[in-house]
Design goal:
The complex is a heterodimer of chains A (338) and B (352). Chain A is α/β, with parallel strands linked by helices. Chain A has 14 helices and 14 strands. Chain B has two domains: 5-45; 60-77 and 136-351, MetI-like fold (Orthogonal Bundle), CATH 1.10.3720.10. Chain B has 14 helices and no strands. Classes of the chains: A alpha/beta (338), B mainly alpha (352).
Chain lengths: 338, 352
């Protein structure tokens, strides 16, 4: 009798638990009071822990932005550090609500894993870093040079294709870790080093004399990085997508964390619509009217987030490049906020 | 001259031409290597400061270790709650040391239950939500204390579990025997890394969506079962070393199966398997560093996270890994010391 009771309690509680999940990620997050966000275990400028255990970075700011939009408080995020292998399982199994872990948006991942990519927050790609004394200004001048490459990365393939396409020759020196790759360049065993461009800047800081090397402008593969959500929950998908767009649109409209309060009252109609003092953009997402206002005041617009984490206000000093607004020569373009 | 340092050198280092060449060669290498190492480690090392910019000298940047020390030891556990980690470490240490100094009856009557309770008490204290303390979810646990807790908690549970599996393996009951053999061979035959991946990547797919078993709990279970598989085989070696006469003597006294096993056989099995048991402990403790692969912030992945912080990118890998190696070595050496003292204590009959 007693045993039967225990079993039925267990059964019904599990049913109740499941149904609360099926009600959708948004309700689930509101009930929990925090966003479970999958990040990397440590990637300079994108998701990194500091000495106090606080998370920061461009990827982390997506988590914080979503928390700000949904819960009104950017700090209500639980970070789940994930390795590359675990990341999709963690999302599929519901362990996390949102994956923001420097993940490349590819056709295969988007279509076959039961996932949706909710936009691009950083356009990355394989790039080159050369020693300055080589006097090279473009990757086209690298004919006959020796490359330092980390073994087992997709970079190897990309660079071989690139050189063959351009009828150039190169020799490869492979290393096991990125640290060794950097030392290879430093000791002169190779003329240039290839990796994802965002990582090149991190490697460059590690050089004894960072100014002795430059990152070339060419990018030879597409690596659009963005947040990922589960497929089949369009409400949540829309929220994450438009949080990303709001931060990009914020920069485009000139709304920053500093002037958002003022523009909310005195801005132009577009700014007011974004900040929720006019229109009902928030309601259509199932959020409060001040959702984007919370994102921009608590996390900052895209430019603020970029400069703080990877740009000129950070040690990485990555220039905007492709990640500038379309009006400034980049390809960042938010769909219309209306 | 047959004694003194010169004679010793003549006998051992320069006794023949090949020996002399080898000695000179090795000394030359050491002379080349050691001054630079000492210089890097100590003389031109940077000892004080708070950020990377304080590392101005050429040597090691120990500032890095200092700045990250809280992360290295306690992970992201809230600073004002760290006393709870220290309390648990203190409990562990006092039970281990205490059990070494009490009489045999107290050890079995009080300290064995204490040991078995320890993992669960520690979980209560560290998590806090069940006993009215500030709840700290496992996402914030980390650092070297996590390595110690995980190893200790798995060892303590695996100790009796492995014994039961070993008994099952020796049993004449077909079901008990086949289940035990299956478990032992599975957990011993699969690399611990593969088990971790199964625990972290595969297992969640089998649960219904939304049912989340804590990652750390999954890892603890995996480690415990892995350890139990090894312990069972260690015990089996112990069982085989016990003369058949001991079993027959116990039977002739009319002892039941459990009386015989627990009072006569177990103490002797423990005694003869002690060196292997402790070697397995050390192995498991070092295996906790594999948790890095599945994104748990134990000491090694904390070090890597620290190395990839954009404000500490100046290449501190040498300092970081050296520090981790030193920590592991210190604890493992401590375990060897304790283990040899236990062996001396248990050595009752074969002493010459």
């Amino acid at each position: 009798m007693k045993l039967k009771f225990v079993f039925s309690v267990l059964f019904f509680s599990s049913v109740a638990f499941n149904s609360s999940v099926q009600a959708g990620t948004l309700d689930d997050v509101k009930t929990k009071g925090h966003v479970n966000c999958g990040v990397s275990t440590g990637l300079a400028g994108f998701s990194q822990k500091d000495e106090k255990g606080n998370w920061s970075g461009l990827d982390v700011d997506v988590c914080r932005g979503v928390a700000a939009a949904v819960l009104g408080d950017a700090s209500k995020v639980k970070y789940k550090p994930l390795t590359a292998k675990e990341r999709f399982t963690a999302l599929q199994s519901g362990e996390i609500d949102l994956l923001s872990r420097n993940t490349t948006w590819t056709h295969t991942r988007d279509t076959s894993l039961g996932l949706n990519f909710a936009g691009t927050i950083y356009y990355d790609g394989t790039g080159f870093m050369v020693r300055k004394n080589l006097g090279v200004k473009s990757a086209k001048e690298l004919d006959g040079a020796a490359a330092c490459i980390q073994a087992g990365t997709s970079t190897e393939l990309a660079i071989a294709d690139y050189f063959r396409q351009n009828n150039m020759k190169f020799t490869v020196v492979t290393f096991d870790t990125s640290d060794q790759t950097r030392q290879g360049l430093e000791s002169g065993r190779c003329d240039f080093l290839t990796s994802d461009q965002s990582q090149l800047y991190a490697l460059r800081i590690g050089l004894k004399d960072p100014s002795s090397a430059i990152v070339l402008p060419e990018v030879i593969s597409k690596e659009p990085l963005g947040p990922v959500v589960r497929q089949g929950d369009d409400e949540w998908f829309n929220i994450v997508k438009w949080v990303v767009n709001a931060s990009i649109e914020g920069e485009y409209q000139g709304v920053t964390s500093k002037n958002a309060d003022d523009l909310r009252k005195n801005g132009n109609p577009g700014q007011k619509r974004l900040l929720g003092s006019e229109g009902d953009l928030g309601k259509k997402l199932g959020l409060s009217a001040d959702w984007a206002y919370n994102v921009i005041t608590q996390v900052g617009n895209y430019a603020e987030s970029f400069e703080k984490n990877v740009g000129m206000d950070s040690p990485l000093k990555i220039s905007r490049g492709l990640n500038a607004q379309w009006t400034d020569g980049g390809i960042l373009y938010s769909p219309a906020m209306r | 001259m047959t004694t003194g340092i010169v004679a010793w050198m003549k006998n051992n280092l320069f006794s023949s031409i090949p020996n002399t060449i080898a000695t000179v060669f090795i000394l030359a290498i050491l002379a080349n290597f050691i001054p630079g190492l000492l210089d890097w480690l100590f003389f031109s090392a940077n000892w004080s400061g708070e950020t990377q910019d304080d590392c101005v000298k050429d040597g090691a940047c120990w500032v890095f270790i200092q700045a990250w020390s809280q992360q290295f030891f306690y992970g992201s556990y809230p600073t004002e709650e760290i006393w709870r980690i220290n309390l648990c470490l203190g409990l562990l240490l006092s039970v281990v040391i205490g059990s070494n100094f009490v009489s045999k009856t107290i050890r079995t009557k009080i300290f064995v239950p204490l040991f078995l309770l320890l993992p669960f008490v520690s979980i209560l204290i560290l998590n806090g939500s069940w006993i009215g303390l500030e709840p700290v979810s496992t996402d914030y646990w980390g650092g070297f204390s996590l390595n110690i807790f995980l190893a200790a908690a798995s060892i303590i549970v695996a100790f009796p579990l492995g014994f039961i599996w070993a008994l099952g393996r020796r049993s004449t009951m077909p079901l008990a025997k086949s289940i035990s053999v299956l478990l032992i061979e599975f957990f011993r035959g699969v690399p611990v890394l593969a088990l971790f991946f199964m625990g972290s990547v595969m297992l969640p797919l089998f649960f219904t969506e939304g049912t989340n078993v804590d990652k750390l709990l999954r890892v603890w279970i995996v480690l415990t079962l892995f350890m139990a598989g090894y312990m069972a085989e260690v015990y089996r070696g112990g069982f085989n070393a016990i003369p058949q006469g001991q079993y027959e003597a116990a039977d002739s006294l009319g002892l039941s199966y459990w009386q015989k096993t627990l009072l006569i056989i177990l103490p002797q099995v423990l005694k003869v398997s002690m060196p292997n048991i402790l070697a397995t402990f050390v192995m498991l403790f070092k295996n906790t560093s594999f948790l890095m692969i599945i994104g748990i912030f134990e000491i090694l992945s904390t070090t890597q996270a620290a190395l990839s912080n954009s404000y500490w990118l100046g290449g501190h890998a040498n300092e970081g890994y050296l520090f981790v190696a030193m920590l592991f070595w210190t604890v493992c050496f401590g375990m060897s010391v304790i283990s040899s003292s236990i062996e001396r204590k248990l050595n009752t009959e074969h002493r010459k």
